[in-house]
Design a protein that fits this description.
By secondary structure, this protein is α/β, with parallel strands linked by helices. Helices cover about 45% and strands about 20% of the residues. It contains eight helices and six strands; from the N terminus they run ααβαβαβαβαβαβα. The chain has a six-stranded parallel β-sheet with strand order 2-1-3-4-6-5, sandwiched between helices. The longest helix has 18 residues. The two termini are about 25 Å apart.
């Protein structure tokens, strides 16, 4: 079954299970700080951080602030994740030199636009540039296409980032998230 296929009305009301599993994977990896620019693809994950009294969540005005906050959180002894949409990756390119030069871990989860079923042509160019741009800045990129792979992929990305001081971006495909309707 396609993860983004239409569901019954009851299933839609409950939402997919993978955001809860993703949150648990982050918590098990010791992530207690999240920064984000509001995004529908991350809405449930953001709500979970907001409702957790042991977590810190920070809404950003631009995505590169999240990279700086993640570095500061690490220096303060806290593991962080930066949540953004693919269109925000371009805003981070210069700031990605900070964790690279300081050899700090960075975990980013990027919801993709400009792919499967995209209605907005403005999303397509950045979508095509996300992976090569991140890789050019020394960020390892892993991609998730199915709901079953979200939590285990993020768990391994967190282990790589925080265990090996690596910069990792997990791309959540638009097929997983579902195409937005205009």
């Amino acid at each position: 079954m396609n993860d983004a296929a239409p569901m019954s009305a009851g299933a839609q009301a409950a939402g997919p299970a993978w955001p809860a599993e993703l949150y648990e994977a982050l918590r098990e990896a010791g992530v207690r700080h999240a920064s984000y620019v509001p995004d529908a693809g991350h809405a449930e994950l953001i709500r979970r951080f907001q409702s957790d009294p042991e977590a810190v969540e920070v809404m950003l005005s631009t995505e590169e602030e999240g990279v700086a906050l993640a570095c500061g959180a690490w220096l303060g002894g806290m593991r962080s994740v930066v949540l953004m949409q693919s269109s925000g990756v371009g805003n981070c390119i210069n700031m990605l030199s900070l964790p690279a030069q300081a050899r700090m871990p960075l975990l980013m989860i990027v919801t993709m636009r400009g792919e499967w079923g995209e209605f907005n042509p403005w999303q397509v160019p950045m979508s095509q540039a996300v992976q090569p741009s991140l890789e050019a800045m020394g960020v390892r990129v892993v991609r998730v296409e199915s709901a079953a792979d979200v939590a285990p992929t993020v768990a391994q990305a967190a282990a790589m980032a925080f265990g090996g001081d690596q910069r990792i971006a997990v791309l959540l495909s638009q097929r997983l998230l579902g195409a937005k309707a205009w």
